[in-house]
């Protein structure tokens, strides 16, 4: 029995892309917040504040590119998405412990990261993300 398809794509692939887009949006909000903080507050180190802002902006763009190419079925997004989810899990674990622990943020980071990892290994997503860069997408 075949799975119902949305726009010629497996539903789990669409769900994967939606979660990646939501993570990208959240990271975009974080980037915007860092810009506002850099402009309105005086950081203890401008170099560190600017470096964190640049890294966050690059990560936002990277995550957005992965989300777009997930819908194209590109194979390389699986590795990139795994790397991002592992980083997100590391931040989530840090949010559960220590003096500045905020478990709510930890759960908001951990649940989608685990869901993306599970989705990346489902047979329909693996099959749908087989397009190599030298092959045309659908």
Short description:
With 138 residues, the protein is mostly helical.
Descriptive report:
With 138 residues, the chain is mostly helical. It is built from five helices and no strands. The radius of gyration is 17 Å and the shape is globular.
Keywords summarizing the entry:
mainly alpha; single chain; 72% helix; 138 residues
Indicate the topology.
Elements (H helix, E strand, L loop, with lengths): L10 H30 L5 H26 L5 H19 L7 H18 L2 H6 L10
Helix pairs in contact: 1-2, 1-4, 2-3, 3-4
The DSSP helix count reads 5
Q: What is the radius of gyration computed over CA atoms, rounded to a whole number of angstroms? A: 17 Å
Could you report the average pLDDT, rounded to the nearest whole number?
A: 90
Strand content: under 5%
Structural domain tally: 1
Count every beta strand, where a strand is a DSSP E run of 2 or more residues.
Answer: 0
- What class, by secondary structure content? mainly alpha
Instruction: Give the overall shape.
Output: globular
- Outline the low-pLDDT stretches: none
Order of helices and strands: HHHHH
What is the share of helical residues?
over 70%
Oligomer: single chain
Distance between the termini: 23 Å
What composes the largest sheet?
none
